[in-house]
Each structure stands twice: as C-alpha cells, then as structure tokens.
Amino acid sequence: MNLPEPLDPEPVRPLHEAQNWHRNAVFYEVLLGSYADSNADGIGDFQGLRSRLGYLAWLGIDCLWIPPFYPSPQLDGGYDISDYTGIDPKYGTLEDFQALIEDAHALGIRIVIDMVMNHTSSEHPWFQASREEPDGFYGDYYVWRDEPDAYQDARIIFVDTEHSNWTYDEVRGQYYWHRFFSHQPDLNFENPHVRESMREVVRYWCSLGVDGIRLDAIPYLFEEDGTNCENLPETHEFICDLRQMIDEEFPGVIMIAEANQPPEEVVDYFGTDANPECHICFHFPIMPRLFAAMQEETSKGVKQILAQLPPLPSGGQWGTFLRNHDELTLEMVTDRERRAMYGWYAPQDRMRANVGIRRRLASLLGSSRRRIELAHALLLALPGSPFLYYGDEIAMGDNIWLHDRDGVRTPMQWDASEGAGFSEADPKTFRLPLIDTPAWDYRAVNVEEAWGRPTSLLNWLRRTLAIRKSYPVFGVGQMTLVHTSDDAILAFTRRDESDTVLCVYNLAGTPHAVNLWLPGMAGWRTVDMYAGNPFPTVDANDELTLTLGRHTFYWLRMKQPEKGDDE
C-alpha cells in the first residue's frame, strides 16, 4: 500500500515546553482497535497506529485523542475499565505505548488519552472487593444504599437500556449507584482515598509522557439529594485540585472536559484565572445546530448559539467537532428540533441511539462533497480547537445494523485490498466488519485512492488544514458575527493583532447573493485565502457584496487600504 509520507519536520523544541499549544491545535480522534492492525489478529493496536503516524503528520494533525485502551470487558467500547494503569494485551504493551509517544513527538504530534473517572467496570478489583468486604478498605469506594431511593432528581442518561440509576447486588445485598450502564458502578468521590487514587492514576500516565487527558463524563463525580447530581461544587473543587497538581508537576499537559451541558454551565469547567480547571471544554450545543442549519437553510440557530458564548478565562478554549465515536447527541435541543433532526437525518429507528443519532458525517450529509466541505470549513473556523474523527477525511460511511454505536466505529479504510489495509487477517475475524455497501464500499472509499487523486476530499482537507495552521487567528482570534442581508448566509470575522479573516458560508442548496455590513471597514480589500485571488473591496457604506454557489464558502483575508496592494 502506498501512503503519503510527512515532510521533514522542522526542528521543534520539546513539546512539553509549549504553553497554550492546544489553542491552535487540530485534534484527531483515532479508535485504536479500528485503525491499523500490526499482527494480523484483526484488532488495531499501538504498533499499527505507529505505522500510520507519517500519514497523520502529512495530513496536518497536531494531536491524537486515543479513547480507552485499558483492560476492560469491552461492554462499552472500553469505557468500562477494569485496570486504570494497565494496557489491554490485544493493543500491545507498555513499551509499545511509550514507543508510540516517542515517535509521535518526533513528528510534532501530541497524545491525549481518555481518563474515565466517574465509574469503573463491575469487574474492577476495587468493585469486587467493595461488594465482598463492605467493611474493608474498598467497601466505601462506591455508592451503596439499602434502598434505591436516593438522588431521585438525577436523570437516566442511557434511556434505551437503563430504567434506574440503581442496581441491586446479590453479593453485598445492597443497591449501587450508576449514571450510565449497570455494569459501570460510579466511584464514591466523597471518599478521600478515591480522590487520591484518581490523582495517582493521572500522575502515572502523565509521567509516561502523555500531553493531555480527556475527562470523560466529568459532571457526575459527586451526588447530593435534592439536586440533579450534575455540576456540583465538589466536582469543580476536585477538578481545580487536579489542575493545580498537573500544572505543578507536568506543565504543558492539558485537561479536556467532556461535559454535555448548556454553555452557561459548561463554562464553569474552565474555572477562573485564579482557580483554573480545564483547558478545553467540548461545545456540544453547536453541533446539532450546524446540521439543522444546513437542512433549514438558515443561520439563525447557529447565530443564536454563537451569540451566547460566554467569555473564557485566559488559555481556555472550546473543543468543536462534527462527529465522534458516540451518537450525535440531541439532548440540548427542543422537542420540536429533535423531531425535525430525526426526520431529516435518522428516519429509521436503527439510526438512533439514546437521545441522538448514530451515523457518520458522510452518511448524515448524503455523501455530498459540497456539504461535507462546508461542514469542515465551519468546524475549522468557528471559535475553538477542532476535533476530527478518523475516516471522515475520506468520507467513510457507517453500518446502522451493528450493535449500539459500533456502526460508526468500523475499521479504517486504507486501500482496496481484502482487509482494506487495516489488517492482513481474514476479514471474517475482524471485531467489526468492513463497510461494503455501494455508497461507501472500502474498495472505492479509501486513503490510497483519495491520496492519489489531487481533487479528493482528503487532499482538499489537507490543504485547508495547512491554511488554518498558517493563520493562528483561527485559533486565538476574536469572533464577531457579521450582519447579512440573507439569513441563508452565515458570516463572521476572526481577528487578532496580526490578521482579520472574513468567513462566509451559504447554508442553502441554491446560489445566493448577499450584502455584508462591516462597520468601520470601508476600503478594506479582501483576498481569497485558497488561491490568493482578489475579491471585492468593502464600499464606502461599509458594505461588501458577494455571490456564493450552493453550499459553498469563502475564507477571505482582509487588508486595510493603507497597507498597499502587495498581495
């Protein structure tokens, strides 16, 4: 298989010395078991991922996010952890993991891992000891009650499978608390030994050289009667203490909060300048609005969310994404909006999971090249650090008939060989089958084919990532919404001390002409950032008139008139 090789990287100072690196980074979520198999057992592993680092460097990825690779019964994709400091043998060894970090760092690529603090697997030795010895050291490591009557105001998250947040344990003769699956008992963070255990786990992985930890399901660490058991002050106190430890012992390592909450509550997970918490918080509400906007052909919903963005403490950054390994959550939209999203994007029940949609980006957007490019152009220009999902760069499809969310977790499609370049094992032995449906068949949709075709989505995305990297304003610049004469057009500027960029998007499936109002910018010139071609100048009335094709966009660099015509 022919794969692109990275250009010789420029010498870089040690990655750990760079502060606020996350604000201009492009992240890439890679499912280890589905990416590349080095030993022909049908399961992706660390050595397989190492062999693809050159491709990721070539693409322009700054940081890899690797979901859990710890020992696990694998009842929830590895998020049911049975050993926090171990590595599941099917993925390799500790030495393999360390070699991955070393090779990635040599290419200027950082590594972020998942840290699942809220719960363990029911097979974790801590839980087994807790249920068997209630008076022992681990007896109070979990939340136990004689009756399932506490915390009644807490919602059930996995409504498709769970009917209660309490499950009875026959061995201990009590009920244990769990916010997710019943095989994932919640840890008792009221116990100081639990808190110290989790700090030690973080120390362990940071000492091995990881560049960040993603705090999974972080709003649910503590419980309190009379509340919804989310976002409690004790949770923020723990995160603040953890941040202080990391800053003191591992400077440059970042914390990422997965808090599926409204922006006014998520912002608390950044902390303050005096008492910082997480460096990045995922911006969940923007995601469904982007998809709704392309269907309704109006920018109103997106503008409303963007206008509500609260100011962030210094160094804070939103994490933006289109898709990931979970469902496209619809928890923070209205009932009407949810029904509409289901009708547009998930008309079959098999396309839905919990309160969301289990489909990949290309499937959601009907494999429309224009809409996929438009979505990525939005992702890469909106305030925040973008998180890409493996396979979306080649428009991989999904398999809605697989269990739970496995339909969006199928093997990476590298080439047209029998095992798609993922593995030399018999494809019948793969944990998840290859995509072979007509629209997304791996023999037609794969990296090798896309790399060799200059006009492919893959090559377009690589070029777009390079443009973004050349202009730090996309990561750190202030965003200002631009008033337009047409609601089908979304426009905003990103501005810092060096650059001003105008981003304009036609969300409609028909061409549109639009007037943009840019107060105080009369006479400013605009230049296309892809080809360097001059575009219209802002007129004396601070107006700019543009025409956009269906589902197209412009990234325009704006130049003050006094700077001269030097483009």
Give a verbal description of the structure.
With 567 residues, the chain is of the alpha/beta class. It folds into 3 domains: 15-118 and 191-470, Glycosidases (TIM Barrel), CATH 3.20.20; 119-186, Oligo-1,6-glucosidase, domain 2, CATH 3.90.400.10; 477-563, Immunoglobulin-like (Sandwich). It has 15 helices and 22 strands. It has helices at 46-50, 53-59, 94-106, 125-132, 192-207, 233-249, 263-266, 286-296, 300-307, 335-345, 361-364, 369-381, 447-451, 457-470, 473-476, and strands at residues 27-29, 63-66, 110-116, 144-145, 166-169, 174-177, 212-216, 254-257, 280-282, 317-321, 328-329, 356-357, 385-389, 478-481, 483-484, 489-495, 500-506, 512-517, 525-528, 534-535, 543-548, 553-559. The strands form 5 sheets. Strands 1-2-3-7-8-9-10-13 form an 8-stranded parallel β-barrel. It has a 6-stranded antiparallel beta sheet with strand order 14-16-17-22-19-20. Strands 4-6-5 form a 3-stranded antiparallel beta sheet, with no helix packed on it. Helix 5 packs parallel to helix 6 (233-249), helix 8 packs antiparallel against helix 9 (300-307) and helix 8 (286-296) crosses helix 10. The protein is globular, with a radius of gyration of 24 Å. Residues 7-13 have low confidence and may be disordered.
